[in-house]
Design goal:
By secondary structure, the protein is of the alpha+beta class. The protein has one domain. 32% of the residues lie in helices and 32% in strands. The chain is built from two helices and seven strands; from the N terminus they run ααβββββββ. A hairpin with a 2-residue loop joins strand 1 and strand 2. The longest helix is centred in the N-terminal third of the chain and has 55 residues. The protein starts with a helix and ends in an 8-residue tail after the last strand.
Length: 187
């Protein structure tokens, strides 16, 4: 009888150990997914930030009379500007804007959108998990302006989220920078 109790006790202990190992494996998998989505979100944020900053710092470069003609449209969620982006003496027209949430209906995140970059009519749609984009424009006195011909700097903000939630929340990264295109300040 004691042998039977020993066998049952060993089976119960083995079951507890197996369940503990299984639970640990599930927790490690969730942590791994969370780290993967966090890394992807941060990588997408850095890539978009570098691209936007590279383009926007050149606003007005090689544009005749850049103060009045470099920024073509200054809206809270989009921008259109002129710049010679690659120092080729060819002035490019560039636009950044967000698409609607329906363009990425195949992801589990209901807030993510495509971000579009249009350069001289060539549209590049990027699925980076962007959920918001806002741009505030400032004049020479540092006051908020909506007039494209008075823009001297801009505060760009955007949020990127993972396409899939981990533990019911989305991995999120936020970027914000005030950009002073030097060609808008030159006399």
């Amino acid at each position: 009888m004691s042998v039977l109790i020993d066998i049952i006790g060993a089976a119960i202990i083995a079951g507890i150990i197996i369940l503990s190992i299984f639970g640990l494996n599930v927790n490690l998998s969730m942590a791994n997914y969370n780290k993967l989505f966090t890394l992807t979100t941060q990588t997408n944020t850095v890539a978009l930030a570098q691209m936007m900053e590279y383009d926007m710092v050149k606003i007005g470069f090689h544009v005749p009379n850049p103060k009045s003609s470099a920024v073509l449209a200054a809206k809270p969620d989009s921008i259109v500007f002129k710049a010679d982006l690659n120092d080729s003496s060819t002035v490019n027209t560039v636009k950044y804007y967000l698409g609607s949430t329906s363009t990425l209906a195949f992801t589990k995140n209901p807030r993510d959108r495509m971000i579009y970059r249009v350069q001289d009519g060539v549209v590049t749609a990027m699925n980076l998990g962007v959920t918001s984009l806002s741009i505030a424009y400032y004049n020479v006195d540092g006051q908020v302006t909506a007039r494209p011909d008075s823009v001297r700097s801009m505060l760009v903000k955007f949020t990127v989220e993972s396409p899939v939630p981990v533990d019911t929340s989305y991995s999120t990264a936020f970027w914000e920078k005030k950009i002073y295109p030097k060609n808008l300040w030159i006399n």
